[in-house]
């Protein structure tokens, strides 16, 4: 039996990969203009990093990590998300010692052992940014705007930005108590998931899809914010309004990772099924300290690239096409074929997309191949042409033929 890819993974074949390249290129370009620099961190880290960073009681760490002992008996995990590794690198490389706000972006695969469905995979990809060292609400707005701009520049319509404040640890503790008091009398009618979340992570209970009808009148986090948290949140909103970024406040928005403080946000899109969150992020003012650095504030987001691809497809966004084949070279006879190999390499060095046959096919089959590749020109070199120092060139769209001196072929192609 042939071997198949593991459940929850995908192959991205030519034809689809161009969409990925388009997303990455667009996102990188937006980051460049927002003055964020790329960072690359390992795909696996010590398990402890995610336990401390993402949080012991989160679904991710409790159930979804790919964790194993390596041959040196160290507990290693494939990264389930990007932030913890970037924070570790920020601390380990003392990037906090730089005099400026440290603005980073990254892209790559993440791994979570989840039940696969449309838009949910076990290996998935994120494009993310993290900005360290500033508590200014203007940077919250910058980060939110950056993610939004990536979607709009990709040509995606109708992305919704939802924001909330999850406060600081003190306001969250007060909220938690009040929420538990509200939930306690309903405990028995709630689903198993909610019951266990009440123990481990009560803030996530209100996220439950099945129990929503029990939550009318539940206390809201925003009512528990202290002065500092509320004014930060108000300032973020006024910056977003000033920048013209459309957003709405979702007081129920709590994220699935433990590190958030103050601003939390998600990007949502229609038309890709039940899972409509295409990206999310927030501020994490305690995380750097928790990972072992001097305490520096941070904020960032992760965009899910699989979900972005789904939205692009659902909205029928046209992906800019790669350059087509400019020339397909045909050599007739041994000497001419040797010359073609040389010529082909010269064209490629000169920036021209060119191809030849490697299957020993007859002229007619090679012409068909040129057609399939949508080649602009077919250039034929036979013994006669070789002797005359010329090459016959046929424009495929018109059938028009001409002879070009071999020595001028490269420059002729660049101008035709
Ligand atoms: P997250 O909300 O867990 O946040 O993931 C961010 C995005 O990754 C999601 O909105 C979704 O689009 C995508 N995603 C998550 N899990 C899967 C999956 N199994 N399959 C496909 N796509 C998925 C984070 O990871 C944080 N590190 C974001 C952040 C950065 N917060 C601050 N800085």
Describe this structure in a few short sentences.
This protein has 416 residues and is an alpha+beta fold. The protein has helices at 17-33, 47-53, 59-64, 83-92, 137-154, 169-183, 192-200, 227-243, 287-291, 305-314, 334-349, 363-372, 383-388, 409-415; strands spanning 37-38, 44-46, 67-69, 75-78, 102-111, 123-132, 160-165, 248-249, 261-268, 277-283, 298-304, 327-331, 354-356, 377-381, 390-395, 401-405. A hairpin with a 5-residue loop joins strand 3 (67-69) and strand 4 (75-78).
Overview of the molecule:
The protein has 416 residues and is an alpha+beta fold. It folds into two domains: 17-168 and 226-314, 2-Layer Sandwich (BirA Bifunctional Protein, domain 2), CATH 3.30.930; 327-415, Rossmann fold (3-Layer(aba) Sandwich), CATH 3.40.50. It has helices at 17-33, 47-53, 59-64, 83-92, 137-154, 169-183, 192-200, 227-243, 287-291, 305-314, 334-349, 363-372, 383-388, 409-415, and strands spanning 37-38, 44-46, 67-69, 75-78, 102-111, 123-132, 160-165, 248-249, 261-268, 277-283, 298-304, 327-331, 354-356, 377-381, 390-395, 401-405. Strand 12, helix 11 and strand 13 (354-356) form a beta-alpha-beta unit. Helix 1 packs antiparallel against helix 5 (137-154) and helix 5 packs parallel to helix 8. The longest helix is centred in the middle third of the chain and has 18 residues, at 137-154. It starts with 16 loop residues before the first helix and ends with a helix. Bound molecules: histidyl-adenosine monophosphate (HAM). Histidyl-adenosine monophosphate binds at residues 81-83, 112, 114, 119-121, 124, 126, 128, 130, 255-257, 277-282, 300-302, 304, 306-307.
């Amino acid at each position: 039996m042939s071997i198949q890819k593991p459940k929850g993974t995908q192959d991205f074949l030519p034809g689809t990969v161009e969409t990925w390249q388009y997303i990455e290129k667009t996102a990188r370009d937006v980051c460049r203009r927002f003055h964020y620099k790329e960072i690359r961190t390992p795909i696996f880290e010590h398990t402890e990093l995610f336990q401390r960073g993402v949080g012991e009681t989160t679904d991710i760490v409790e159930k979804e990590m790919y964790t194993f002992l390596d041959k040196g008996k160290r507990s290693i995990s494939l990264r389930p998300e990007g932030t913890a590794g970037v924070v570790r690198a920020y601390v380990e490389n003392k990037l906090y010692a730089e005099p400026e706000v440290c603005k980073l972006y990254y892209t790559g695969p993440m791994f979570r052992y989840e039940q696969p469905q449309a838009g949910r995979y076990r290996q998935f990809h994120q494009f993310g940014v993290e900005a360290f060292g500033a508590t200014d609400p203007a940077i919250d707005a910058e980060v939110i705007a950056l993610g939004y701009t990536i979607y709009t520049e990709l040509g995606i319509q109708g992305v919704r930005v939802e924001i909330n404040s999850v406060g600081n640890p003190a306001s969250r503790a007060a909220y938690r108590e009040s929420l538990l008091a509200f939930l306690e009398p309903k405990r028995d009618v709630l689903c198993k998931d909610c019951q266990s979340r009440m123990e481990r992570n009560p803030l996530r209970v209100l996220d439950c899809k099945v129990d929503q009808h029990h939550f009318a009148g539940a206390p809201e986090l925003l009512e528990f914010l202290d002065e500092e948290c509320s004014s930060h949140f108000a300032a973020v909103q006024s910056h977003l309004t000033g920048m013209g970024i459309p957003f709405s406040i979702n007081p129920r928005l709590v994220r699935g990772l433990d590190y958030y403080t103050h601003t939390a946000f998600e990007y949502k899109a229609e038309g890709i099924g039940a899972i409509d969150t295409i990206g999310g992020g927030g501020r994490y003012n305690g995380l750097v300290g928790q990972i072992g650095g001097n305490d520096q504030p941070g904020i960032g987001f992760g965009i899910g690239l699989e979900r972005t691809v789904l939205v692009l497809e659902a909205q029928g966004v046209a992906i800019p096409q790669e350059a087509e084949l400019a020339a397909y070279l045909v050599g007739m006879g041994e000497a001419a074929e040797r010359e073609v190999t040389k010529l082909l390499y010269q064209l490629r060095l000169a920036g021209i997309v060119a191809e030849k046959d490697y299957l020993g096919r007859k002229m007619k089959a090679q012409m068909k191949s040129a057609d399939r590749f949508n080649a602009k020109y077919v250039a034929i070199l036979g013994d006669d042409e070789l002797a005359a120092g010329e090459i016959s060139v046929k424009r495929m769209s018109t059938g028009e033929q001409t002879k070009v001196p071999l020595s001028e072929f490269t420059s002729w192609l660049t101008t035709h």
